[in-house]
TrEMBL record:
Organism the protein comes from: Candidatus Harrisonbacteria bacterium RIFCSPHIGHO2_12_FULL_48_16
Keywords, alphabetical: Membrane, Transmembrane, Transmembrane helix
Tagged with keyword Transmembrane helix: yes
Positions of transmembrane segments: 7-26
Record's protein name: DUF5667 domain-containing protein
Length: 198
């Protein structure tokens, strides 16, 4: 009977180890926690609602700007008051989105491969930035309400003209940022989905 040489045994083990290493390096195992997926789907719906609600407010801001230019401060104030009231739903949605982002962040470290984990981190960061922009957006909207109220109470305050225009521009900029961040989230998640063959 032929005896197996220790060198041959070592070579077989080394080859097997190389195959296993290559398997996990070249084709890493894929794992996506269902909790992450569930929070992601809910969060995407909420973010889309935020974008749509913001669009509605922007339409109203065009009216506010026109009323302000016509020095019809009463109508401008009524219009911005409606926008502030409607925007409360946006604030509620931002809180709901934060909750979903928290759930997504909780499960990111369990995602594999690492490229998918990196994309998920990027997407969650984008939506966190969206929530931050919503805070600024809401603040500018409230400041606009206060500026128009001051103009109504004392129309001779000409310095408020520039402030109203600046606030409207700031609100438009924040709305654009919100749209861009949501678009980035969707693009990153499309790349993420491709990893998992979705």
């Amino acid at each position: 009977m032929k005896r197996i040489k220790p060198l041959h045994v070592a070579l077989v083990f080394a080859a097997a180890a190389m195959v296993l290493i290559l398997r996990y390096v070249v084709f890493p195992p894929k794992f996506l926690p269902w909790e992450f997926t569930e929070a992601r789907l809910k969060g995407a719906d909420i973010a889309q609602r935020i974008v749509e609600l913001s669009r509605g407010t922007l339409t109203r801001l065009n009216d506010v700007s026109r009323y302000d230019q016509d020095r019809n401060y009463n109508e401008a104030l009524v219009s911005i008051a409606r926008a502030v009231i409607e925007n409360r739903q946006n604030q509620v949605e931002a809180v709901r989105l934060s909750s979903q982002l928290e759930d997504m962040a909780r499960y990111i470290m369990k995602i594999s491969p690492s490229r998918a984990r990196s994309l998920a981190t990027d997407a969650v960061s984008s939506e966190i930035a969206l929530v931050t922009r919503m805070v600024y957006y809401n603040d500018y909207l409230f400041q606009l309400f206060e500026a128009l109220k001051a103009k109504l109470e004392n129309p001779s305050r000409s310095y408020l003209d520039g402030q109203v225009n600046e606030l409207i521009n700031n609100i438009n900029d924040e709305a654009q940022s919100i749209n861009d961040l949501n678009k980035h989230f969707n693009q990153v998640m499309a790349e993420f989905d491709a990893i998992f063959g979705k």
